[in-house]
Write a structure and sequence with these properties.
Shape of chain A: globular
CATH architecture of the largest domain in chain A: 2-Layer Sandwich
Helix content of chain B: 40-55%
Number of strands of chain A: 21
Low-confidence stretches of chain B: none
Oligomer: heterodimer
Number of helices of chain B: 7
Largest interface: A-B, 70 and 67 residues
Number of helices of chain A: 12
CATH topology of the largest domain in chain A: Glucose Oxidase, domain 3
Mean pLDDT of chain A: 95
Strand content of chain A: 15-25%
CATH superfamily of the largest domain in chain A: Glucose Oxidase, domain 3
Distance between the termini of chain B: 72 Å
Helix content of chain A: 25-40%
Chain lengths: 512, 212
């Protein structure tokens, strides 16, 4: 056995020379936005914390600017994970800082009606927006969450605002966990400016300052338990990128907090002998915010490579089931949605410098799926089907996006919907988007907001955790990722997950 | 006996059409038939000329995909290989346009390849469209990985300074031990001040053309 890690340090793959065993007050599995908050709050309160992360820490020199290679390095299954049923890519990061390293830093508080729905539908009493405001405030202050400044919006974001203005729809700069954005539009491949306050450069270093031990390149494979108590976790060291497994480790802890993500956490419970799953709900109720995007081509260059990756949004249609936002990604990723072949395809590619892509994230509360673990593997099968009523929201959202694009001055739009003409030149032509009944498979979608696979519920027979994230079946096993959301948030989920994690951490501080 | 010989001859002919007779060698990871398919598909998707002069092979798409396939997890690699196999050999069952459409994809003429890919793209069957979307996604990302193509359409990434922050004092380069952490407290620099990048500012060094 090697010596235990000393207080306040990071271990990386090259540091592990043999099997090891350590102990702590609290072990946190997963260093994404929620796990990092829990680790920091508990370390700051003087608890002995070990934070475990399967991926490595990245520094700017290691960011790949090319989208495919970036995903290969920072995402599980090389970024090619997809649901079955309604086939849709869904990504999960594998890096210190989790998804915060490669997301666009959007921080939105859900409207009150989301929490009212949660409380009334899931027997919750202390999860109103008012209950969570102090936790939102604490996280917001720590990360410097603020609206995106005008001077780094760039034309493609500002065009969205002008289109919304022309139609009388509300819009606003997106609040983000960013300090000193320069508008490089590279949020999805890692912020070279170090402006994005991803967890690896914000909460994790702060947790280390307070004595947390951070072990990277370690894969938790099982939760150890003794009766109704979790005793710790065990697993193996994994080589970055290859995933090759080597030394074994074991962490003994008084409290175990799972923040491995909505997909991995139920798999971990399953591989630990259906732990904390007397309700049978672990892995069920899988929800997404499928995205619907429409591209517009403008007469003047939009210089889309400049500007905040996602700088503007509209919450106007939240009651209708979707949120609108601007979008940019590596050019190769954006180009995938263009129509045509051969020289026609090249014509479209050459106009990307004149484009703006805006998307809607859809609250598919009627559409459910499940996480199906596979023997000996931590990457499960994801089944997901879109309810026909939710497809109607796709259509409505695509129509509104078309409206805004034309109102902003687009000369043509590319809806990217099978069965609809590749190019539409007017709002009249765009009527086809909202007319008639469509199938989900006609839409090219992606779903990177994932929820509810270990949902909170006041009734232990109908949910996995209580309002504070504690597993109903266990005294000292907590879950702090988006799996505990009773339903989708209707807005980008990171901020809500962090606020709930902050509340869980405070409850643990009081308890331990 | 004659019947058996005829069947064996047919089988041998069939196997030859599937596996044998590729003109070039494979690449580091891609087998000869996979390399031929990728080259043919990238030529069809991005032919020479048009508003971006570089063709798919000019832009190094086959070499890019060779590297890409080598880096993905084994299960994903298998799926990619199945996809290549399917596209390359589907025309032996569902032929491309005449004349001589009953050949492997990589052996078809340029116009025939376009027609075959368009059939995948516009199919009423979702799985067929999915095959096309997956193939085109890989080819497109390979095409846009070429700095010359990105420069041509004005989307090459900017040069961006990376300030040295507290995290840089904690993490070594990936795969290296902590003793190789590059920075100490004296190396810390002020954080980004939020000065917007300039559209006419310098490009990332890897994306600068020879003239710059």
């Amino acid at each position: 056995m090697s010596a235990p890690a000393s207080q306040g340090e990071v271990r990386v793959f090259a540091d592990y020379e043999r099997d090891f065993r350590e102990s702590c007050d609290v072990v946190v599995v997963g260093s994404g936005p929620t796990g990092s908050v829990v680790a920091h709050e508990l370390a700051e309160a003087g608890r002995r914390v070990v934070l475990l992360e399967e991926g490595p820490p990245f520094t700017p020199g290691e960011f790949e600017l090319e989208g495919t290679l970036s995903m290969t390095r920072t995402m599980r299954e090389a970024g090619l994970r997809a649901t079955r049923g309604f086939v849709m890519p869904t990504m999960q990061a594998i890096a210190l800082g989790g998804g915060s390293l490669v997301n666009s830093a959007i921080c939105v508080r859900p409207p009150e009606f989301v929490f009212e729905r949660w409380c009334s539908g899931f027997d919750l009493e202390r999860t109103t927006r008012k209950d969570l405001e102090p936790h939102f405030d604490a996280v917001g202050e720590f990360l410097g969450i603020a609206p995106t400044p005008e001077d780094v919006q760039g034309p493609r974001n500002l065009l969205f605002a002008s289109g919304c203005d022309a139609l009388g729809y509300s819009s606003e700069p997106i609040a983000r966990n960013v300090r000193g954005c320069r508008g490089s539009g590279e949020c999805f491949t890692g912020c070279r400016s170090r402006a994005k306050q991803s967890m690896d450069i914000s909460y994790v270093p702060a947790a280390i300052r307070h004595g947390a031990r951070v072990l990277t390149s370690v894969q938790v494979q099982r939760i150890r338990s003794d009766g109704r108590r979790a005793a710790g976790v065990e697993g193996q060291v994994v080589e970055p990128f290859s995933g090759k497994r080597s030394h074994r480790f074991r962490i003994d802890a008084d409290v175990v907090v799972l923040a491995a993500g909505c997909v991995a956490t139920p798999v971990l419970l399953h591989h630990s002998g259906e732990l904390a799953n007397r309700s049978g709900q672990a892995g069920r109720n899988l929800q997404f915010h499928p995205g619907v995007a429409v591209m517009g081509i403008f007469p003047e260059p939009t210089h889309p490579q400049f500007g905040a990756t996602q700088g503007y949004q509209s919450l106007e249609f939240l009651p209708d089931g979707f949120k609108l936002e601007t979008l940019w990604a590596p050019p190769g990723v954006m180009a995938v949605r263009l129509p045509g072949l051969g020289l026609e395809y090249k014509r479209h590619l050459a106009r990307i410098s004149h484009c703006a892509v805006w998307d809607a994230i859809v609250s598919c509360n009627r559409s459910l799926g499940r996480v199906v673990p596979r023997r000996g593997r931590l990457d499960p099968v994801l089944h997901y089907d879109v309810h026909p009523e939710d497809v109607k929201i796709f259509q409505h959202a695509a129509w509104v996006l078309a409206e805004i694009l034309f109102a902003a001055g687009a000369k043509r739009i590319l809806p990217g919907i099978h069965g609809v003409p590749d190019v539409l030149h007017s709002l009249e032509e765009a009527e086809v988007v909202r007319r008639g009944e469509m199938r989900a498979s006609q839409f090219v979608s992606a779903g990177n907001h994932v929820f509810s696979t270990t949902r909170m519920h006041g009734d232990p027979a109908r949910g996995v955790v209580d309002e504070l994230g504690r597993c109903h079946d266990f005294d000292n096993l907590y879950i702090a990722d988006t799996g505990i959301f009773p339903q989708c948030t209707s807005v980008n989920p990171m901020y809500t997950g962090m606020a709930l994690a902050h509340r869980t951490a405070q409850a643990l501080v009081e308890r331990t | 006996m004659g019947l058996w010989l005829a069947l064996a001859a047919l089988l041998a002919l069939g196997l030859r059409r599937v596996f044998v007779g590729y003109p070039g060698p494979g690449l580091a990871c891609l087998a000869p038939r996979e390399a031929a398919l990728v080259a043919a598909a990238s030529e069809a998707m991005f032919p020479t000329g048009g508003e971006i002069p570089e063709s798919g092979p000019d832009a190094g798409v086959p070499a890019f995909l060779d590297r890409y396939v080598a880096t993905v997890p084994p299960q994903v690699r298998l799926l990619m290989r199945l996809l290549f196999f399917l596209v390359e050999h589907a025309t032996l069952v569902f032929p491309g346009p005449a004349p001589r459409g009953w050949r492997r994809f990589s052996a078809l003429e340029h116009g025939q390849r376009i027609a075959v890919l368009d059939g995948w793209r516009t199919s009423r069957l979702f799985p067929r469209r999915l095959v096309f979307t997956s193939l085109r996604a890989m080819l497109t990302m390979g095409y846009f990985a070429d700095p010359a193509v990105l420069r041509r359409i004005g989307l090459a990434p900017f040069a961006v300074d990376s300030p040295v922050c507290e995290a840089d004092l904690l993490y070594p380069p990936i795969g290296r031990p902590r003793s190789e952490i590059r920075y100490g407290p004296a190396d810390l620099t002020p954080p980004s001040d939020g000065t917007p990048l300039r559209l006419d500012g310098p490009l990332h060094p890897d994306y600068r053309g020879g003239a710059q």
